Amino acid sequence: MLLWSLLVILAPASAQADGLTFLAPPSVFEGDRIVLTCQGKKNWKIEMVTYYKNGKMFFSSKEFSDFSIHSATLSVSGNYHCSATGRGLFQSWEETSQTVNIEVQELFQHPVLTASSFQPIEGGPVALTCETRLHPQKSKVQLQFRFFRGSRALGSGWSSSPELQIPATRTEDSGSYWCEAGTVTPRIRKQSPQSKIHVRRIPISNVSLETRVPAGQVIEGGNLDLLCSVAEGTGKITFSWHREATGPSLGKKTQHSLTAELNILAVRESDAGGYYCTADNGHEPIQSKVVNILVRIPASSPVLTITAPRAQAVEGDVVELRCEALRGSPPILYRFYHEDVTLGNSSAPSGGGASFNLSLTAEHSGNYSCEADNGLGAQRSEVVTLSISEAGGYRRDFVIARVLGGLFGVLAFTGGVVLSYHRCHKISGKSSATHTHRGASSPNPQESTQPSLLFTMEDLQPEYVNVDSLGVDVIYSEVMGFQQPEDSANTRRPSLETKDSQVIYSPVKKS
Predict the structure, then answer these.
(1) Could you give the CA distance from residue 394 to residue 380 in angstroms, rounded to a whole number?
(2) Which helix H or strand E contains 7, and what residues bound it?
(3) Which of 107, 131, 251, 437 gives the lowest tally of CB atoms within 10 Å of its CB?
(4) How far is CA 313 from CA 114, 124, 310, in A?
């Protein structure tokens, strides 16, 4: 008896009437295979077997045969029965089975699309989830998911994960979203209702311009980096860089970023000035404050000049050492060197050159140089050589020159006196000759033979000669005297044999 009870419980659902039986599986899920069976007596001569669902015929056969549904769907649910017709010995007959209710259970629920935000801010992330639930008796079934915006599939297609991450939304991501869940075997697909997602754009705010150089100073020949940034703003942002008092833009960049950078290569002195940038994400351009850029110029190689009170510097003179760099941003510090030993330094706060005064001693002869440094690299000048003479030698030359000048004055005066005396003596001689011609004899016979000394101004002209071995100029004057012959009337010029001369030499300092 117990065995018979178990067989009744586990047997398929059936309906029997007058020997016609309808068999169907007791529990059906979506995707299951269903076999419907209509059975009668073996000795029946069947003309037609017909299957019905909800009173409507959907299948017929001339013999008893099964009807299979390969993948059940919810629409398969309904009331089923069968009928059979045949012919006996004397008449035709028709048998109908009892009705069997088949209910296909849902394998998993229709999915619902959810989002972390249906109005996300542009640039922000959004997480999409395809939510569904398996029947408790089918919890081990593996489901797959995929997502759509409109008719366009998102991501890589089918995935075992019910979530999809959109890391950064854009305004063009706005639209209708839905998802689909399904099984691999058997193939069951279910779609979620569509959901609207609207991506909001935030306007630009707080635009700023920064430089990557300290204190806004860039060295001539270097690179200038201008960084434009915004505190808020979503979507594609167009950055543009400008210089004050100029028309066209220095450069533009459009990108999904809150910052952008412009590089200016090989900056020149003329690139100094005010700079600003603008940012625009479709609302209106927003401008930053002006940033002043200072271009600093390294100091050039300076020029050293030495100024002395005379052509040949001597001990005790005060000379001026002036160092000047023709190019270079102020302030400039100048250092002065004697034989690479520092003498001192001087600063030029506003640019230009600087001077250093030095009182000379004998040890100051040698090579001088200077250095210019404005913090961008020191530059050294070429070497200038200074030679110094002793102060005593200069004074000795000065005394000799004065003595020589006095001597010339004395000689000139003496020559004048002698010339006057000579002229008076000639007048006196002519008077004596007149008396002789008249027959008067000379009272003093020796008077006619007395010699006379004659000087000429021509002999007092100075002559110059250069003595190379001494390296100085020498001046000399020669004074010549001679005796006057008795026959002075026939002699215009005294002979060299009777001439007496004296030469005086003296050095002269060159200016």
Answers:
(1) 35
(2) helix 2-10
(3) 437
(4) 99, 83, 6
DSSP H helical segments within 76-115, as ranges?
Answer: none
Q: What DSSP string describes 465-507?
A: EEETTTTEEEEEEEEEEEBPPS-TTS-SS--GGGEEEEEEEEE
The single-letter DSSP state of residue 438 is T
Q: Collapsing DSSP states into helix, strand and coil, what is residue 339?
A: coil
Q: Closest by alpha carbon to 326, among 297, 359, 347, 358?
A: 297
CA–CA distance, 472 with 389 (Å, rounded to integer):
14
CA distance 370 to 368: 7
The answer to whether 4 and 44 are in contact (CB under 8 A) is no
> What's the number of CA atoms in the CB half-sphere (13 Å) around residue 306?
29
Residue type for 213, please? V
List the end-to-end C-alpha distance of the chain, in Å, as a whole number: 156
Classify residue 182 by burial, with Cβ atoms within 10 Å: 0-12, 13-18, 19+.
Answer: middle
Task: Identify the segments of the chain with pLDDT beneath 50.
Answer: 1-12, 16, 398-399, 401, 403, 427-474, 476, 486-499, 509-511
* Contact call for residues 210 and 258 (beta carbons, < 8 A): no
Q: Which of 129, 162, 149 is nearest to 198 (CA)?
A: 149
Position 441, amino acid: S
Question: Which pTM value belongs to this model?
Answer: 0.47
| Helix, strand, coil abundance in the chain, percent, nearest 5 | 15, 45, 35
